[in-house]
Amino acid sequence: MDGESNSGGQGVRRFRCWWPWLCGFGLLCAAVAIIGYPTAERDGRMMGNPHYDDGPTTESYGFRWSTPDEPYLQRLRTEYSLERIVGGAADDYAKVRALALWAHNLWQHHGENEPRNHDPISILEEVRQGKKFRCVEYAVVISGCLNALGIPSRVLALKTEDVETRKSGAGHVVAEAYVRDLDKWILVDGQWDVIPLLDEIPLSAVELQQALAENRPELAIHTGSDSKPAEYFKWIGPYLFYLDVSLDNRVAVADRSCARLMLVPVGAKKPTVFQQDFPIRDMVYTHSVRAFYAKPG
Q: In what order do the strands lie in the sheet with 33-36?
């Protein structure tokens, strides 16, 4: 997604509002090996040093989630043999790793192609025809398939500090999954086939940002691809400033709300435009990490 004019799938005006990560202005892995992150290669990875409020909060935003017994998710699970793909996995985290690696290997990243429709089954049908897509579609497929397997997941849009003034390359899109084994949210980057780790514990996007800001030598990645931790962390760092998700994370539900929640660093501007030209609408803003990372109901 780096350097793409529609990074993170944003700025695409024809996206349908009922896909939550594409609302308003078009808002916008799995692993086998654990690879360490050489500290000498980290300089220049971040544009700022954002700080969020991690204290107790009374904020609550009423996130909505799919259940795996919904007909669409049953179809997704059956047609794409998802239970076979994660067969033998000892726990939910192992399922996330297996599913994300499968999705990563379905196609080679193409930063300009967009699917005709934006739900997981439609994307996978085009992939069967040889189509290749962006980071957005990796996240949509991974999130949808994890929900079909009973693992709550959402599509997470990442934005740079200069999201309003940069002409292109201001966004990236990943999935985040709530892993009950770990009782936490974890980032899954399907484009790179990366799950970040600190002391072998998988991280959420905001935890990764904080670990990078602190220059933690224990940072590593889970990956089954040839992604290198130093390269990945240097690349992803600038995108970890603003984070936003849909409040309605149900998969393939036509009557969903378009409202989104953005995690904004304390003292930072609340962005209202993406890449100079695309208004950010239907956005609620918070500084609270705990509200943003509420446990799925």
A: 33-36, 219-223, 195-198, 201-202
